[in-house]
Amino acid sequence: MADxxxxxxxxxRVTGIVDIENDANVVDGNDGTPYYFPNDGMTLLALxxxxxxxxxxTGYANEYGRVATSFTFIVAAGDTGLVGPFDPHLxxxxxxxxxxxxxxANATDYFLAVRLQNTGTNGV
Length: 124
Known about the structure:
mainly beta; 10 strands; Hypothetical Protein Tm1070, Chain: A; five-stranded mixed sheet
């Protein structure tokens, strides 16, 4: 399966969280496929795992001596949640993207990259 470049959905405090499964930028789970999304340090991964899966985020070495360390966790069937935000110095590849791979996923597991943007109106 080819790499999947995700598009980030921008949310505001006014619009709130979208319907993850029906957002225009949602992607479904493909076992072993590398997924990427642009990351500015304010990006989160929203997920709905109907069947459940394992997600591994690829870590990268940085200028401060951190070694490349990946982070893996299990998502139980029926879970909905948010993962992140991701510090760009630790999680971005050379193209400014976070990479993750899903194991044991299927088409009923949904993933959406989201960014909460300040509207600038009265701190909202």
